[in-house]
Amino acid sequence: MTTYEFNNSLIEMKSNLHKFAMSLTSDREKAHDLVQDTYLKAISYKDKFVDYTNLKAWVFTIMKNTFINNYRRNIKENTLIDVTQDLYYINLSDDKGYISPDSSYSESEIEKAIDSLEDEFRVPFRMHVEGFKYKEIADELGLKIGTVKSRIFFTRQKLMNILKDYDR
After folding, report:
1. pLDDT class of 91 with cuts at 50, 70, 90
2. Is the pLDDT of residue 85 over 90?
3. In the prediction, which pLDDT does 109 show?
4. For the chain, N or C: smaller number of CB within 10 Å?
5. Are 65 and 106 in the same domain?
């Protein structure tokens, strides 16, 4: 295949390449960049293409591999590697220690609403919020697991009803 034929075949694939790039990236600009990268690689590595084979499959494979490599590169760039002795950066809290008056007020209202519930609903709900599993709550309270699940569900419903003014 001559260079002229090769380049013409690439140009004819532009709309198909753009559609495929859009399916990979879901972003018009990134898709355009991916098509350009694919063209660049296809032209740069024209000597690797074997004549009388499927040029379209070869070019689409270049695009797919370029997309995958870019994705992997972006993931590596956004990965934090903490080499400190006590993993200082990973254990660093995002909490700045500031509690807005709005949030503390809401928290006290939520606590008041929970405390207003009957024991049969409040106790399993509090245990669930504290991190107990359904099985552990059932064993501790001597209830069936289905009863625990339904009480927690109904407690959520009651709290949403009581606190409907605090929907944020």
Report:
1. low
2. no
3. 82
4. C
5. no
Are both 8 and 62 inside the same structural domain? yes
Does 160 map to a domain?
yes
3-state secondary structure 5-60: HHHHHHHHCHHHHHHHHHHHHCCHHHHHHHHHHHHHHHHHCHHHCCCCCCHHHHHH
Mean pLDDT within 85-93? 61
For the chain, the distance separating the N- and C-terminal CA atoms, rounded to the nearest angstrom, is 64
pTM: predicted TM-score of the whole model, two decimal places: 0.48
Inter-residue contact 10 to 28 (CB < 8 Å): no
Return the pLDDT at 163: 80
The residue segments making up the domain with residue 46 are 3-77
**Do 110 and 145 fall within a single domain?**
yes
